[in-house]
Amino acid sequence: MIEARGLAKDFTSRKRTVHAVRGVDLTVEEGEIVGFLGPNGAGKTTTLRMLNTLLRPTAGTATVAGADLLRNPLEVRKRIGFVPQAIGQTQGGTTDTNLVIEELLDQGAAYRIGKAETARRAAQLIEQLDLGGLDQRLVKTLSGGQRRRLEIAIGLVHQPSLVFLDEPTTGLDPQSRSNMWEHIRRIRSELGTTVFLTTHYLDEADALCDRLFVIDRGVTVAVGTPDELKRRVSGDVVTLRVNGQLPAARALLAEQPVVQEIAVSDGELRLTVEHGEEALPVLLRVLDGAGITMSAISLARPTLDDVFLTLTGRSLRDDSASAGGGQDKAEGELAGAGARTGNGE
Ligand SMILES: Nc1ncnc2c1ncn2[C@@H]1O[C@H](COP(=O)(O)OP(=O)(O)OP(=O)(O)O)[C@@H](O)[C@H]1O
């Protein structure tokens, strides 16, 4: 669905060049929910804007939804949906006096879809995105979460095979965020839409995405499923508490090939193992065979923040806190994105 090689973008203003994206390779399969994870200023939005034809790459090639990005951007634009970052906090454009249903119908008209067909699709999207009963409401009266769901519905009216969501849950409360994840999954399962989203929320990347591209300072630093990425860090940690016989248990477990490291702290054994779910039954059998009983056992995986820290030496959270770029984003952007994107006119 996306095949990109060496995508790069430089911005030059007043003799200063910013290498926003330095050569990103991406492969996204049909039907995947893929996340682009990285701190502020990493180059996520710039990459997204190149892939959805709003910015022309300085270098690189890409095929997006079956069309060549550089040679046939209009075809790419027809086949994809794009929901940009929310403008402002939660309410978006305050001058927007359209009704919810009008926004959806206007989007159909922008793509020259017949009225009856647009109305049918609008009704389906209203249902799928839990906007039922809101179709006659003014857009400006919607809550932040409702507004964001409407923006996604607008991005899907022309039934794109691929939709780009730029930070779909930024600014939403925790409950609305997890509802949004449900809606995004539902769009994928009911419409078969491939979803490519950016996020700097670790929990979102973990809970929602099939695969992740971790980007830092304009380059991809890791690719994989959330679990694969976490495994690359330092293995899983098994913590167990035995009933007496601590030294014997320690000696026995230390001999097992699945155990990489073992330590005792606060009367608990802390073991580092490569694959926790495979190691657990082995450890249990060994202890059982020696007649050692346990009072507690737990398995923990490293977090995606640990992955980022290992790969870059910096914490993703620290970077997210200090909003990096974005001072002068107008320069270098292409005018006119074709159909409206959901942030009003
Ligand atoms: N039009 C522009 N002109 C100059 N520099 C730009 C422009 N757009 C982006 N940049 C710079 O390029 C870098 C990458 O920005 P980008 O918006 O792609 O990052 P991001 O990962 O999406 O960040 P965020 O999470 O804050 O949205 C930043 O240093 C930013 O300041």
Automatic annotation (TrEMBL):
Q: Kindly give the PROSITE patterns that the UniProt entry links to this protein.
A: ABC_TRANSPORTER_1 (PS00211), ABC_TRANSPORTER_2 (PS50893)
Topology within the bilayer: Peripheral membrane protein
Query: Boundaries of each ABC transporter domain copy?
Result: 2-242
Q: Where, per UniProt, does this protein localize?
A: Cell membrane
> Which GO terms of the molecular function aspect are on file?
ATP binding; ATP hydrolysis activity
Enumerate the residue ranges of region (Disordered). 318-345
- Principal location: membrane
Gene Ontology terms: biological process:
daunorubicin transport; doxorubicin transport
One Pfam family recorded for the sequence: ABC_tran
Q: Which InterPro entries match?
A: AAA+_ATPase (IPR003593), ABC_transporter-like_ATP-bd (IPR003439), ABC_transporter-like_CS (IPR017871), DrrA (IPR005894), DrrA1/2-like_C (IPR025302), P-loop_NTPase (IPR027417)
Entry GO terms, CC: plasma membrane
Question: What keywords is this UniProt entry annotated with?
Answer: ATP-binding, Nucleotide-binding, Transport
Family as reported in the entry's similarity comment: Belongs to the ABC transporter superfamily. Drug exporter-1 (DrugE1) (TC 3.A.1.105) family.
Protein known as? ATP-binding cassette domain-containing protein
What species does this protein belong to?
A: Trebonia kvetii
